[in-house]
Specification:
Blueprint: E1 2-5, H1 9-26, E2 31-34, H2 41-52, E3 62-65, E4 67-70, H3 79-86, E5 98-99, H4 106-116, E6 120-123, E7 145-148, H5 151-157, E8 170-173, H6 176-180, E9 184-189, H7 195-202, E10 220-224
Parallel strand pairs: 1-10, 2-3, 2-6, 3-5, 6-9, 9-10
Antiparallel strand pairs: 4-8, 7-8
Helix pairs in contact: 1-2
The structure holds 2-amino-2-deoxy-6-O-phosphono-alpha-D-glucopyranose.
2-amino-2-deoxy-6-O-phosphono-alpha-D-glucopyranose binds near residues 126 and 132.
Length: about 230
C-alpha cells in the first residue's frame, strides 16, 4: 500500500485526475469506479477541466458508482443527481455507460461489474472507516447489498440534506469483495475527522474498520493531507 501525503485537496484532485486522464488516453474504454461525497470533488473538477481543454474524451468510458441512497425524498438528494451535477453533465460520457446499484436487485451489480472489470476505483472514507456504505462489522466477503446507515454516517451526511430527518436510513452499496475486484484503488482522506479511520486502516485488518480490507489489495494508494495523517502529531 502506497501512502502519499499532499498539501491539500486541490493537489490530491490534480494528481488523481491526471492519472485517470493518462489511463483513458491509453485505454479509451476504461472502466472507472466512482465515489460521491466531498473527497472526490476536486478530482471531478480537474477531469472536467481536462475534458474542456480537449485533453481527454469519456466517449467510451464506463462508470460504476459505489452506492446509492434508498428512499430519498427528492431527486436532488440522490447520488445519481450528485454525479450528474458534479461530473457527468459536464463531460461527453454516455448516460447508458454510467451505472448505479439497484436496490431491487443488488446482486445484479456484481455480475455487471464482473463482466466489465473496474480498472480504477476512487474511494473516500467515512469517519467510522466505511468505504462505499460498508459500515463497521460488515463481512469482508460482502457483495452489493442493502445496508442500514449508522447514526454517525447519518449525522456526518446530514450536511447535504435539508435536515437530519431527511437523510435516508438505508442505502445500497457495492460490497467489500466487489470493491476489492478493482485492478487499482485510490482512497482520499482529508481533514481531522478522518484521522482515526486512517489510523485504524493502517493498523491492519479489522472488521471494525471496513476500509482495512484494502491492506489485502496489491495496488492501493492512499492520498492524505496533514490533518488526516495519523503519523503526524
Ligand atoms: C458517504 C459515501 C462514501 C464517502 C463518505 C465520505 O458516506 N457513501 O462513499 O466516502 O461519505 O464522505 P466525504 O468525502 O464527504 O467525507
Amino acid at each position: 500500500m502506497k501512502i502519499l501525503l499532499k498539501n491539500n485537496k486541490e493537489e490530491i484532485g490534480k494528481e488523481i485526475a491526471s492519472r485517470i486522464v493518462e489511463l483513458i488516453n491509453k485505454k479509451p474504454n476504461t472502466v472507472l469506479g466512482l465515489a460521491t461525497g466531498s473527497s472526490p470533488i476536486t478530482t471531478y473538477k480537474e477531469l472536467i477541466k481536462a475534458y474542456k481543454e480537449k485533453k481527454v474524451s469519456f466517449k467510451y468510458v464506463t462508470t460504476f458508482n459505489l452506492d446509492e441512497y434508498v428512499g430519498y425524498k427528492r431527486e436532488k438528494d440522490s447520488y445519481k443527481y450528485f454525479m450528474h451535477h458534479n461530473l457527468f453533465d459536464e463531460i461527453d460520457i454516455k448516460d447508458v455507460n454510467t451505472h448505479f446499484p439497484d436496490a431491487t436487485n443488488p446482486l445484479a451489480y456484481d455480475k455487471e461489474i464482473e463482466l466489465k472489470e473496474i480498472d480504477f476505483q476512487v474511494l473516500g472514507i467515512g469517519a467510522d472507516g466505511h468505504i462505499g456504505f460498508n459500515e463497521p462489522m460488515i463481512s469482508f466477503d460482502s457483495k452489493t447489498h442493502i445496508t442500514k446507515l449508522t447514526k454517525q454516517t447519518i449525522s456526518d451526511n446530514s450536511q447535504y440534506f435539508e435536515s437530519i430527518d431527511a437523510v435516508p436510513k438505508e442505502a445500497v452499496t457495492m460490497g467489500l469483495s466487489t470493491i476489492m475486484k478493482a485492478k487499482e484503488i485510490v482512497l482520499i482522506a482529508t481533514g481531522k475527522n478522518k484521522r482515526s479511520a486512517i489510523k485504524a486502516l493502517l493498523a491492519g485488518e479489522s472488521k471494525e474498520c471496513p476500509a482495512s480490507i484494502l491492506n489485502r489489495h496489491p495496488n492501493v494508494t492512499i492520498y492524505l493531507d496533514k490533518d488526516a495523517d495519523p503519523r503526524e502529531n
